[in-house]
TrEMBL record:
Superkingdom, natural source: Eukaryota
Function comment: May play a role in fertility regulation.
Keywords for the protein's UniProt record, in alphabetical order: Developmental protein, Differentiation, Secreted, Spermatogenesis
Cited CDD domains: SSP411 (cd02955)
UniProt feature, compositional bias: Basic residues: 8-19
Residue spans of biased composition, Basic and acidic residues class: 23-36
InterPro entries reported in the protein's UniProt record: 6-hairpin_glycosidase_sf, 6hp_glycosidase-like_sf, Ssp411, Ssp411-like_TRX, Thioredoxin-like_sf
Cellular localization per UniProt: Secreted
Official protein name in the record: Spermatogenesis-associated protein 20
One Pfam family cited in the UniProt record for this chain: Thioredox_DsbH
Region Disordered, residue ranges: 1-62
Amino acid sequence: MSHLSSPPKKHKGEHKGHSLPHGSERGSSSRDKDRSATVSSSVPMPAGGKGSHPSSTPQRVPNRLIHEKSPYLLQHAYNPVDWYPWGQEAFDKARKENKPIFLSVGYSTCHWCHMMEEESFQNEEIGRLLSEDFVSVKVDREERPDVDKVYMTFVQATSSGGGWPMNVWLTPNLQPFVGGTYFPPEDGLTRVGFRTVLLRIREQWKQNKNTLLENSQRVTTALLARSEISVGDRQLPPSAATVNNRCFQQLDEGYDEEYGGFAEAPKFPTPVILSFLFSYWLSHRLTQDGSRAQQMALHTLKMMANGGIRDHVGQGFHRYSTDRQWHVPHFEKMLYDQAQLAVAYSQAFQISGDEFYSDVAKGILQYVAQSLSHRSGGFYSAEDADSPPERGLRPKEGAYYVWTVKEVQQLLPEPVLGATEPLTSGQLLMKHYGLTEAGNISPSQDPKGELQGQNVLTVRYSLELTAARFGLDVEAVRTLLNTGLEKLFQARKHRPKPHLDSKMLAAWNGLMVSGYAVTGAVLGQDRLINYATNGAKFLKRHMFDVASGRLMRTCYTSPGGTVDHSNPPCWGFLEDYAFVVRGLLDLYEASQESAWLEWALRLQDTQDRLFWDSQGGGYFCSEAELGAGLPLRLKDDQDGAEPSANSVSAHNLLRLHGFTGHKDWMDKCVCLLTAFSERMRRVPVALPEMVCALSAQQQTLKQIVICGDRQAKDTKALVQCVHSVYIPNKVLILADGDPSSFLSRQLPFLSTLRRLEDQATAYVCENQACSMPITDPCELRKLLHP
């Protein structure tokens, strides 16, 4: 391996001390310091020359990407590059013409992908090099996560990090030999330019092709061995108690006492970690470590919600914070963050009873309903970080979200009555949210000077302190601030909006169904559960092929707003099945409509057929046929910005066993956990979601059965009681007394449970034994939460 540039900075999700889950480092903020290009290579490469900077005026002649559906590929449709989408046509051309493949992977809301497109892919000379000497292939990582994972594995293994855009050079047989992330167009003092890299690789391919091919084969073989996850000689998974404690200790070591979270900077929302801490608290709540786990999770959630990573004007959360204080974010907004954080804040409310957390959860879902929802019930992928400050101007990161003092003063000039000093609504809001005349963004976080004089809203004081400062009533301050934020929200609507990635992914839609279903159930709000129901209906109508029983990965919004598909369709990956099944199980428990449970069972059967490794255990990320030609077939072994599909599948298998009693699913769960034993033993903090599944498997899943009519008040009261208590290791079953119902056929013991005196009655069953019948919600709560 050789580097063609200075030693790179740490991978954007890397944490000190131990390997915490990366925050899916989707693109980097324009304010990241020392963003040097990294090139990893399987062979040494000679120096190359540098020429004059060519013109980079884009030609308005479309390339073949104009026929694609992906918003990301369409962004590159007018590059002067002979781009191909991922597919056989490109591979055949590379083999026929004996050219290396240049693979460029990104996504439509990635800041540094935009930068590289503008600097390099719109450059005429670079475009000629890419078109004449390489077969250039563009991939949307959200459409083809399998392609992304395979080559990111290479980049991370042969350099010190990864991220997007990801640029990898492949042999015509798709084996990688050089890889990197963002490249500037030309050489700098410490950085190698993209044009230079292309010239060097072109020369190497001509002079040392056989050496390149041999080294590429050697690296691929090493990656195959390194990435293998298998049961091997192990009979059972490791001890849950041991792995749990080790995971907690690793998190405790990296915890930020002052601001919460688990790194210095950048700081990512880590819902999988927060979920683990809540689960750890529940099983250790009488111990000091248990109390600490709860405090770590609640404090992190509170600091995030008060910070600038949360959009206080329009709600929802940005991708990550560029500083330790959660103050200045990378402004991109992702659907998967909103989905998981809604659940995390709902769980925090269940545990603490503090409405602060439930209000944040409701705000997240309000944002998704307003900005990321298709009229047919599906959910869009993301909103960009960049937008023009005014129409016709060049896009800047954060332009849509930041404020000057002058703007706020003009929008909120009204005097505040009853204050101890002259005060306007604008001054009150600026004090509470830390706005200053000079701007509250450090120059170190704004190297290009795009955010001078601008402010990110971040809560600086409690309502009580702000009220005391001006001699006002707390509720009056709350009302004044909310009114002020609403006026800012209405004014912001007149700004040019960030780009919306209107692609819809089955996996992320599944996560969002969970977000609405869980939050709606916890808060007892049918309106939120209806959003989940509409999301599930959308998935079944637009992203499910009835004939084959398979999910589709993607669908798109046409210019007219209707739902469109690629032809041929992009079929689902493991994460699509795992996340949709989880969403359907959550929706069944929230709505008690058994049709969603039945569909979940059918999808799990399909998932088992397409992805299960019958030899090594666990699930592959992609179908064997879909990934044909790729050098690796991987099993995702890290819970990051999204949980690993294997971690979610372990939970799903446990729950499905609880709903049906089918032993095969419990056996699969044990086999899956056994396959990942070594990873959990060594770095459990990389798989906190799977560690939770391991604990659930080695404890006993509660079957909470409510006998009653779904629409009856007394039934609803018992169901709401169950949802109000934090019980992650349970299934909630409605037994309506119909012996021919789906659940009655699955679980014959339900027919033995009777209503007491014709009232809705609850039973808590464990280890094939049920509690005495309970009709009083208060008594049920005591039993569930002793």
